Amino acid sequence: MHKISWLLNEQLGFDFRRLDETEENSEKKNFSVYQHESNNASFSLIENKSKDGLLLKKLDNIDYLLKIEGALSNSELDNLQKQIRQTSGIYACLIIELSVLKKKELDLLA
Questions:
Q1: Where do the domains of the chain lie?
Q2: Does residue 2 surpass a pLDDT of 60?
Q3: What pLDDT is attached to residue 109?
């Protein structure tokens, strides 16, 4: 998880930092969370797979989730996705609509 956050920091000019365990949701305490704040958005890089299993079982083919909260235009989102896809070591970058997740799954990402 440290490596992927470092790669994204380098590619995107972000400053992902690991959240202290006391700040994390107790149900996802065994899944690492890194966070970056910008002027218009908050980004949380969340580990979906750990030695303890899956955070979101429905997304068993996804290793990491990037949760974005805030105001990003469609062009900013497209540009971000393009930059992530160009990052060495990242093989796919998908946008997942929140409507495909159940309320319990959404709560885990809160």
A1: 2-108
A2: yes
A3: 79
Per-residue pLDDT for 89 more than 80? yes
Taking the C-alpha atoms of residue 103 and residue 18, their distance in angstroms, rounded to an integer, is: 25
Q: From 3.30.300, 2.30.30, 3.30.310, 2.40.160, which CATH number describes the 2-108 domain?
A: 3.30.310
Residue 34 CB-density burial (10 A; 0-12 exposed, 13-18 middle, 19+ buried) = buried
* 98 vs 106: CA distance, rounded Å: 8
Pair of tokens at residue 48: 């979906």
Q: Which residues pair with 49 in a beta bridge?
A: 54
pLDDT digits (tens, 9 = 90+) for 49-84: 988 889 988 889 999 999 999 989 999 999 999 999
Rounded to an integer, the average pLDDT of 30-59 is: 91
Q: How far is CA 106 from the centre of its chain?
A: 13
Integer CA distances (angstroms), 69 to 27, 60, 65, 91, 109, in order: 20, 23, 13, 23, 11
